[in-house]
């Protein structure tokens, strides 16, 4: 749309034809006048229906409305989880500790049982909300925690967020910073909120992230040395699958090590770039140096351009699960191979990995649906073969939205062993520890129909099919 020549939006073809939207826009307009000290009593009440609607104004109003709705959604999530903690009966069933003769089979005290019930109720409610809104339960809990943190510690900033005056990125950055302030440092909360509320409304996300670190640093009552020691205990490295056979690696490490690592990558990349026949970009060189240093353990080998990844014959022994159609392996088909914990990868990489495999297991799949039909059981112990079958059929935890690889999960009895459930493929499935405890400790139920399709029923009666495999 050419904003220089078309400054009005046709009323019949826009959101302005919606009376509810017009009213919401009008109220936002009046609130903005009030914030700027402009009296709105004398403004014509028909203004919202007769004013020329500039498309820029429309875009700004929509952005503000979306921001407000996002924060209000976070608050609604927080309210549901808080209610679940206060009244867990709907999510975990009747409280057995109310019976004076009841004793926990595992020996827990009544107080410990009640605390566990509250925890399971919150987990169960988050899983239910996530299933209904196509989010994971962790995302629901994260958004609820963000709202709770800001409402409690940063009331000025939170009011502006609910009003739509702060971008979602700045809301998240402010919540993260406020959450790291001590739980009993209300003076620090006040100092942080006083400065951050204004900055969050004025600055773009990149600038605000820089500014909020300084605001938090000045408001924090503890020394930098104490904070660094505590933060260093949470150091971690994570791998996030990306598109087209790539992965993103993030490391949460002390800044000094990060800076030294960056300098080593840069120095080695500059050295390689100076070679006569080097054609790779600086970014590609940094990535190749990073991989070679990590995979080869810091050997003196100079990384070179290669079309296929190099895998050392010695050093570290690892196990990688790769599902590859036999026709693809033989070069007679184009169906993608699946790398466990990631997803589809290109055929050349799959064949390179397959060439170094020391052991193979035949898996028969339906050529149309991709469903695992059978698996060769050459291992002596039956549980090991069953696990291999189940992890091939279900690459991830079966709970709604969970992406925990099945190789890291428990193998759960859908119908409990104590209730007569069989140790058979039709009654088994991978569940991560978090969701295993929710299934066993709440009314969440996993169902299986006559054709083997799995589904879930939440304590509120919400039903949904189990997530399909990624291949």
Automatic annotation (TrEMBL):
Residues 385-437 form the HNH nuclease domain. It comes from the Bacteria. Signal peptide: none annotated. Residues 442-471 are annotated as: Disordered. SMART domains: HNHc. Pfam families: DUF222 (PF02720). Transmembrane segments: none annotated. This is Uncharacterized protein DUF222.
């Amino acid at each position: 749309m050419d904003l220089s020549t078309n400054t009005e939006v046709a009323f019949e073809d826009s959101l302005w034809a919606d009376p509810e939207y017009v009213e919401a826009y009008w109220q936002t307009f009046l609130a903005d006048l009030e914030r700027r000290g402009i009296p709105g009593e004398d403004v014509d009440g028909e203004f919202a229906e007769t004013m020329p609607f500039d498309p820029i104004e429309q875009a700004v109003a929509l952005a503000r409305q979306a921001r407000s709705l996002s924060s209000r959604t976070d608050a609604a999530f927080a309210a549901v989880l808080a209610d679940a903690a206060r009244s867990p009966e709907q999510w975990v069933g009747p409280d057995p500790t109310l019976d004076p003769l009841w004793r926990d089979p595992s020996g827990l005290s009544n107080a410990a049982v009640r605390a566990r019930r509250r925890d399971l109720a919150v987990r169960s409610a988050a899983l239910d909300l996530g299933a209904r809104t196509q989010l994971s339960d962790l995302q629901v809990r994260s958004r609820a925690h963000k709202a709770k943190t800001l409402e409690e510690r940063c009331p000025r900033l939170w009011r502006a967020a609910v009003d739509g005056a702060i971008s979602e990125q700045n809301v998240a950055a402010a919540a993260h910073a406020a959450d790291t302030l001590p739980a009993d440092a209300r003076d620090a909360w006040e100092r942080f909120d006083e400065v951050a509320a204004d900055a969050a409304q004025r600055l773009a996300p990149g600038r605000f992230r820089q500014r909020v670190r300084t605001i938090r640093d000045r408001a924090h009552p503890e020394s930098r040395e104490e904070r660094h020691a505590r933060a260093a205990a949470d150091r971690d490295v994570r791998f996030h699958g990306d598109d087209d056979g790539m992965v993103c690696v993030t490391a949460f490490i002390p800044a000094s090590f990060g800076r030294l690592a960056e300098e080593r990558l840069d120095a080695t990349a500059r050295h390689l770039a100076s070679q006569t026949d080097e054609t790779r970009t600086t970014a590609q060189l940094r990535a190749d140096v990073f991989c070679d240093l990590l995979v080869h353990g810091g050997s003196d080998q100079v990384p070179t351009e290669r079309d296929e990844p190099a895998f050392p014959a010695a050093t570290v022994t690892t196990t990688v699960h790769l599902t590859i159609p036999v026709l693809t392996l033989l070069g007679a088909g184009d169906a993608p191979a699946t790398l466990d914990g990631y997803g589809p990868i290109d055929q050349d990489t799959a064949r390179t990995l397959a060439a170094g495999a020391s052991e193979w297991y035949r898996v028969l799949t339906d050529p149309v649906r991709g469903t695992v039909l059978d698996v060769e059981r050459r291992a002596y112990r039956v549980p090991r073969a069953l696990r291999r079958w189940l992890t091939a059929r279900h690459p991830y935890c079966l709970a709604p939205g969970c992406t925990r690889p099945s190789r890291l999960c428990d193998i759960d009895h859908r119908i409990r062993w104590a209730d007569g459930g069989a140790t058979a493929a039709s009654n088994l499935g991978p569940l991560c520890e978090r969701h295993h405890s929710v299934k066993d400790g709440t009314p969440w139920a996993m169902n299986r129909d006559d054709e083997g399709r799995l589904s879930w029923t939440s304590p509120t009666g919400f039903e949904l099919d189990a997530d399909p495999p990624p291949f």
